[in-house]
Amino acid sequence: MLHKVELPYTRFLSPDGQLLGELPAWADDFNLLTRLYRQMVLTRLFDQKAVALQRTGRIGTYAPTLGQEAIGVAVGSVMHADDVLVPYYRDTAVQLMRGVRMEEILLYWGGDERGSDFAEPAVAEDFPICVPIATQALHACGVASAFKIRGEHRVAVTTCGDGATSKGDFLEALNVAGAWQLPVVFVVNNNQWAISVPRRIQCGAPTLAQKAIGAGFHGEQVDGNDLLAVYDRVQAALERARHGKGPVLLECLSYRLGDHTTADDATRYRPAEEVRHAWLEEPVKRLQRFMVGQGVWDEGREQALISECQDRVQRAVDNFEAAGIQAPESILDHVYATWPDALAEQRDWLLERAARRAGGPGHE
Ligand SMILES: Cc1ncc(C[n+]2csc(CCOP(=O)(O)OP(=O)(O)O)c2C)c(N)n1
Ligand SMILES: [Mg+2]
Questions:
Q1: PANTHER family of this UniProt entry (predicted)?
Q2: How does pLDDT run across 266-322, given as a tens digit for each residue?
Q3: What is the rounded average pLDDT of the residues 156-181?
Q4: What integer is the mean pLDDT of 203-222?
Q5: Are both 290 and 347 inside the same structural domain?
Q6: d(CA 151, CA 35)
Q7: Centre of ligand 2 from the C-alpha of residue 323, in Å
C-alpha cells in the first residue's frame, strides 16, 4: 500500500498580491519588504542585461533567473554573513543578495576565473557556482560537518533544481546530512523543468520535499513565488539548523519563465499556454501588488527604482568590460594546489598555442 506523506505547504500571498490569512509578525516591517522588493527588481534587470550581453557575444552562456527571484532574494537575505552558500548555476539572485558583485557574476559567465574570487569579505567563504548537477550538495555537507565539529553556530545553505534531486549525489548528501544531523539547509528551486524534462516524469513521488523524510529529517514545501512565504520558511529552516535541530529540505515551487540557458530554446518543448499561465503567478508583480495595496509603493517609486537599477547595472557592465582578458592558462590556476607532472605536457601545449595565437593569425 502506498503511504501518503503529508508535508506543510506555505503561502501568504495570492498571485494577485492579496493576503491569504494572517501576515507573519516579521512582515510588519515595510522597510524590510521594500528592501527585498528593490533587490528582486535589481536582480531582474541585471538578468535581462546578462542575456543581452550573451546575445552580443560579450559573455559565454548564461542561466537566467527570470521567475525565481523571490527564492534567491529570500535565501540571501535570511542567511547570516558567516553562513556559507554552496550555490548552483541559477543563483544570481542569492549571490547578489549575499554581496557578490554584478561584475563578478559577468566575469564568471565570461569564462574568467576572477568572477569566482569574491571581493566582498562577507562572501569570501561562499563557494563558486557549481555546474555539475548536485555535486555541490555533498560539498555543503562537508562544510556543515566542519561547523559541527568546531561547535560553530553557522549553517551551510545549498541550492539546486528539481532535476538535481534525482541525482545520486543529492540523495547521498541527504543521507549523510540526516545520519550526522548536520547544520545544512537544502533549498530546491523546483522550476518544473530540467532542461526539456518536465517535473512529472522526473520522479514518482508527489513532492520532492518528502525525500528528506527517507533521510530522517524535516522537509516542507513553500510557494517559491511568494517572497513572504519563502522568507518565513527559510528563516525557520536556518534557525532549526543553526541550533542543532538538524537539516531541512525546503522545496520552493516556482517556474522557469526563461530558457534553460542562453543556449536553449524552450519554445521547442514547452506549451505556450503553460508559460502564459506561469506569468500570472510570477513573484515580482505579486509583491509589488501587495505593497501598492498596503500604500507603501506606487508608480513614481517604481520608475525611480528602475532607473537607479539600470544605472547600477550599467556601471557593473563598464567595470566588467574594463577588467580585460585573462591569460588562457588561468583556467588551470585553481584546479590543483600543486600542478601534477602528468598534466605538464597539456599545460605546455596550451601555453605554446596561446603564444602562437598572440603572434597573429599567420602564426597559427
Ligand atoms: C553531472 C551533470 N549531468 C548533466 C548535466 C547537464 N545539465 C545541465 S542543467 C541540467 C538540468 C538540471 O535541471 P534542474 O536540476 O531542474 O535545474 P534548473 O536548470 O531547472 O534550475 C542538466 C541535465 C550537468 N550539468 N551535470
Ligand atoms: Mg528545474
A1: 2-OXOISOVALERATE DEHYDROGENASE SUBUNIT ALPHA, MITOCHONDRIAL
A2: 999 999 999 999 999 999 999 999 999 999 999 999 999 999 999 999 999 999 999
A3: 98
A4: 97
A5: no
A6: 33
A7: 33
Task: Tell me: do 313 and 337 sit in the same domain.
Answer: no
Pair 350, 285 in one domain: no
What's this model's pTM, rounded to 2 decimal places?
0.96
Residue 350 has pLDDT above 80, yes or no: yes
218 and 353 share one domain: no
Decide: 194 in ligand 1 pocket, CB within 6 A: yes
Count of domains for the chain: 2
Ligand 1 atom 18 nearest Cα = 161
**pLDDT exceeds 90 at position 169:** yes
User: Rounded CA gap, 133 and 195, in Å?
Assistant: 12
DSSP helix, strand, coil percent of the chain (3-state; round to 5)? 50, 10, 35
Whether the CB of 263 sits within 6 Å of ligand 1: no
Mutate to test the pocket of ligand 1, among 133, 187, 264 (most ligand atoms within 8 A of CB): 133
Closest approach atom of ligand 1 to CA 131: 25
* Contact predicate 269/196, CB 8 Å: yes
CB of 124 shorter than 6 A to ligand 1: no
Q: How many helices (H) and strands (E) does the chain have?
A: 12, 8
pLDDT value for 363: 45
Q: Whose CA is nearest to atom 7 of ligand 1?
A: 133
pLDDT value at 132 more than 80: yes
Instruction: State in Å: Cα 147 to ligand 2 middle.
Output: 29
Q: Ligand 1: distance of its center to the CA of 306 in Å?
A: 32
Q: Which residues are catalytic?
A: 256, 260, 269
- Residue-wise pLDDT for 33-52, tens only, equals 999 999 999 999 999 999 99
Do 214 and 125 lie in one domain? The reply is yes
Q: Answer whether residue 75 is part of any domain.
A: yes
Gap from CA of 25 to ligand 1 centroid (Å)? 37
For residue 149, the domain's CATH number is 3.40.50.970
Same domain? For 177 and 290 the reply is yes
Count how many residues are written for the chain. Answer: 364
Are 211 and 243 part of one and the same domain? yes
- Ligand 1 pocket residue status of 161, Cβ below 6 Å: yes
Residue 4 belongs to a domain: no
> Is 3 part of any domain?
no
Residues 351 and 270 in one domain: no
Residues 6+ apart with CB under 8 A from 83: 154, 155, 156, 157, 238
Task: Please check whether residue 2 lies inside any domain of the structure.
Answer: no
Amino acid residing at 226: D
Q: Where in the sequence is the domain holding 78, given as residue range(s)?
A: 9-322
Would the CB of 252 count as within 6 Å of ligand 1? no
Percent of the chain with pLDDT over 70: 98
Cell digits of residue 142? 562537508
